[in-house]
Structure formats: C-alpha cells, structure tokens
Amino acid sequence: MRNYESTFSKLLLVLFSLACMAFFALPLLWLLTAPFTPMTTLSVEIPDNPTLDNFRTVFKNEFAIRALFRNNLIIAGGAMLSVAAVATLASYGLSRTRIVGRDILVYVLMLFSSVVGGTAAMVPLFLLAYHLKLIDTHVGVILVMTGGLLPAAIFMMRDFVDSIPRSYEEAALVCGAGPFRIFRDIAFPLVRPGVAVVAIWAFVNAWGAFLIPVVMLRSPENMPASVALYSFYSEAGTPVHTLVSAYAFLYGLPVLVLYLLVNWRFGFRFFGGIKS
Amino acid sequence: MAKIQLENITKKFGELTAVNDVSLEVSDGEFVALLGPSGCGKTTTLRLIAGLEVPNEGRILIGDKEVTKLPPRERDIAMVFQDYALYPHMTLLDNIGYPLKVRGVAKPDMTARVTEVATELQIGDLLERRPGQVSGGQQQRASVARALVHQAQVFLFDEPLSNLDAKLRLEARAFLKHLQQEVGVTAVYVTHDQAEAMALADRIAVMNYGRVMQLGHPLDVYRRPANTFVAAFIGSPPMNLLPCEVDINAGKILFEGDRVLDIASYRERWGGVLKNGRDITLGVRPENIAISSTEVPGSIPSRVYVIQPLGGEWLVVTQVGGELVSVRLFQDEAPELSENVWLKFDLDRTFLYDKNGDLLQ
C-alpha cells in the first residue's frame, strides 16, 4: 500500500515536471523550427520542406544586420569587458582589505543596482549623459549598463575571491612578490573562472538590453538588435513571424556559443593546492 | 643564516591580545619550536616574524637589521605553510621556482636550481605536475622545496606536518630533522604536537595566552617544567599534579584524605623557598613513581583505578583521594597489584608549585 502510494506520488511529480518543462520548452522549440518554415504560425511544427529563405530576407535588412553584428557586439562586448575588469579589481579589494561596514556597503550597492540600471533613474541618467555629450554614443550606453550591472557583478565576484585561501597570497608575499605581482601571478589566475562567469553574465545582460539603448541612442544606425527586432513588424504593428523568428534565432546564437566556449575553456575545474 | 630577536612584542586583534610582551632570541643556526595549544599565540608570533602581521609594540630584528615594520619581501625569509599554499594553476616547477622568478632569476637558471632542490627532496620527477596531481606527502615536500630554493636567512614553519597522516608525519619529521642538521638553518617552527617539538627543536618555547611559559632545551622542559601549565601540557600522559599542603617544620606534605608524605630528608632542598603553605601543587611524572602492593617507608596509600597496557609499558591509574595519579611501569608482564597500593615518589624528580602555578626551587 505504501509502495503504491509513493509510486503514485512520484508519477504525479514527474507529470507535473513534464508539464512545467513543456511550458518553457515550447517557445524554444518554436524558435528552432519557425525560422526554417516558409509560412510560420504560432504553433510548433516540423517543416515539410525546410528553407533558408527567411534568413535571406533578414540579411537583406541592413539596419537589422548592422544592429546585431556591429552595435550589439560593441555594446555587449564593451559592457562585458568593463564589468569584468572593474568587478574583479573591486571585489578583490573588498575581499582583502579590512573596511569597517564592508558587508553593509556591498548590500547597499546591491540595492542601488536595481535603481541605476532600472527605469527609475532613466531621467537623471539621460541628463547626465547629455551633459557629458554621451547621448547617441555606444560609450554612453556601455557606461550606464556597466553602472547598473557592477554591484551585482561585484557581489558575485566576491564569492569567488573569498573562496580563495589567503595563504596563497601570503605565500607569494613571503616569496618576495609585491601586490601587483601577486594579483597578476596568483589571484587573477585563480579567480579566472569567476571572471568568466561574471563576463558572460554581463554580456548576456547587455546583449538583451532594450530600454537603456532605446533611450540613450538617437540615430537608427546605432541601435542594437533588441530595437532592430521591430523592423520585422508589419506597418500595422504585428510581427512577421517568419522574419522575427529567423532574426531572433541569429540574435540568440552568440550567447549560446559564448556560453559553450567558456564552459569548454574553463569548465569550472579547480586544481587543489590547499590541503584542508 | 642569521639570528632572530623579538623584543617585548605585543600584538592585539581588537580586544584580544594574541601575543603579550614576548621576548625571544633565536641564535644563528638554531631550531626553536613554538609549542602550545590552539589560540596560544604561537602562529601569530610566527606571522610577526614573517612580516604578515605588524606588532603593536616591540621590536623584531633579523640578523642585525630591524625589520619590525618591513614587508615580508625585505626580510629574506622562507616559510612553509600549514596548508602548503602551492598555487594550483602552476606546475611544481613554477611553484618551487616562484621565489626565484620574483627575484628576476632567468628561466634556465631557475629550472636548474629547482631541479637540484627537488631532486634532493625526491620529487625531481614530478616537476611537470600540478599540486592537485601529487600526493599529500609530495605536496609537503614541494612546499619545503619552495622554501629552500632561494637561500633565505630564516626559515619559518607553520605546522607543516599537521595535515599529513600519522605514518607520513613520522617520515616527514625525520626528513626535516635531517634537513635541518644538514643545512643548519635558523628556524622557527610552530606546532601543537609536543612529540614533534621534542624531536626537532634545539629549544622549545611553550606558549599559552600569548606568553612564553617556558623556554629551554626539550629535555629540560620535560624534566623540569617551570610551571603547572607546562607540566600539564608536556608529556603523554602529562605530569601528575596533586593539590597538597606543606608543613615544613614537621617535614610533611599533606594530601587530601589525611594522606601524609614524609619529606624530612628533603627539608634542606625545599627549605629555602618552602614555607608552611596551603594551595601547593606537587608535580611528579608517571615514570618517577614506584608502586608496590605493600607499605614502604615514605609512600602514600592509594587505590588502583585501572590498568592500561601500552605495548612495551603499562599505565596504572590510581586514585589518591579524589585525584587520579598515573604511574608508568616499564615491564613486559602485566603488573600484579592488589587493590590497595602504595606510591613512592622519586623526590629528586618531584616538584612543588606555588598557588600561581610557578615552580618552587
């Protein structure tokens, strides 16, 4: 009786999980099939005669292609580099120095991050950028994105830095190395997996950003892909499913590739040199 | 090589005084062990010598140079860490050669020197591996090699053997002793393992509550503990410590339960310092007590509590009043004892401590 009950509850659990999975998997499946279908609807169907015509049409849209392969790369790449660099240095400093109220500082920063990156600060940020003559420049977008992402990035990085035993650095100190040398030779190589995680996270966030670029940028040739996606809407404002799905497919690829690349390169292995 | 001098060193962490007015001199080529329970300040003392901490008060000299506030790299020291602290992303070659690389030694020279040291320590064929790919004992040797690779003036060891299992630890201990005799380095060695300190050190500094409780040759520290802390800390089992009262005129020591020990013949030895007193502690090592089943002159009665075989010896634990007294017997057969036995202390090796726990002599 008992066995029967537990089997039944397991079955329920599996069914429930499957339902949840289907809910999230269906749109992804649609994204895999729709771009290759001549006449796309909103249902998932394996195309009878798969075609690349949709992609050909998309590639003819210069505005959208420039947005994706130039503007998006500049914005996301720039945000990725600046977030990773600043977060690494900041978290290292935060982790290794004794500052009164350090943890409170970090939490307050976390709180502010949602403000700086969000809608609430859009007006002051716009004015700030205006006075700095950063409106309609990618640098402006990168700076605002970096400001918004940094606190969370520092928060994440600190976990990585904190997990590295201080005795590594102390051993290097005793070996005669100075602070910069220790950072370069010891600390940075050890936190590299963390830097990779934070970099990807920043890249993905900036890659998909819509609000900040659309407010900060003026000219169409500077707009990123999230904005350019709307060029595949009909004049009546309804999406052209074939083209939107094909463009979205291209839009999603780099993130996927980057993730696989970093996972393959770093794989989050950690050779132990500390005996605990 | 150089001597190390600590002059009235005090180090506080907030409210906590980790090292309290410690003065210590380590001669050129001497091996001194800092021994004590955890939290006694021994590691902090070592880190102060290394320059990883800066003292609040006092001076530190290495050689004839004051280094109190200098960073580690200006002290010409080498240190072996408890967790070895080998860099996981570097090969053993790069790990051991790191002090040379930092000093700007060219790669071929570095490789040659590392190979030489590593071969001496029998890890010469592992240099291409990373720390995670060699055993604990080999990691330990690699960390020692890193300390040896540039000829530092002073060697500091922070419990380097405590992460090894028992068998490897004995091997590594012999290896370190051999190394020390061969190289003749000035070394400070932190440990909580008294056997390690005894075996390795020229002198032992027993520490507690941030102070040096006794400093001396290992055998002196063992045979003649300067206070009850050292007496209870050194030795396995430690010294028996019995609260007692002294009546010097009658030549008697009174223990709990009206047990009386005649010390008339020792009045002279203790007479100068010993006044009639309560709150006296008598200390005697388990091997300096004779035990017999019949009453002998100058002995006190006790009851056998338990007898433990320890291989080549026997540990007889007896009760004197409410106190347990251990007696070590070096014999092959099990001791045949009645329940009531008499203990005769070797009074030449029996010590009296005052109520502060300091040796009366």
Can you offer a commentary on this structure?
The complex is a heterodimer of chains A (276) and B (361). Chain A is mostly helical and 276 residues long. Chain A has a single domain, classed as Orthogonal Bundle (MetI-like fold), CATH 1.10.3720.10. Chain A has helices spanning 2-33, 53-60, 62-96, 102-116, 122-131, 138-162, 166-175, 179-207, 211-216, 225-228, 241-265. In chain A, helix 3 (62-96) runs parallel beside helix 6 (138-162) and helix 8 (179-207) runs antiparallel to helix 11 (241-265). In chain A, 37% of the residues are buried. Chain B is of the alpha+beta class. Chain B folds into two domains: 4-233, Rossmann fold, CATH 3.40.50.300; 240-360, OB fold (Dihydrolipoamide Acetyltransferase, E2P), CATH 2.40.50.140. Chain B is built from nine helices and 21 strands. In chain B, helix 2 (92-102) crosses helix 3. Chain B starts with a strand and ends with a strand. The A-B interface holds A 165, 167-168, 170-178, 181, 185-186, 189-190, 270-276 and B 50-52, 71-73, 77-79, 81-89, 95, 98-99, 102-103, 130-133, 136, 139, 146, 156, 163.
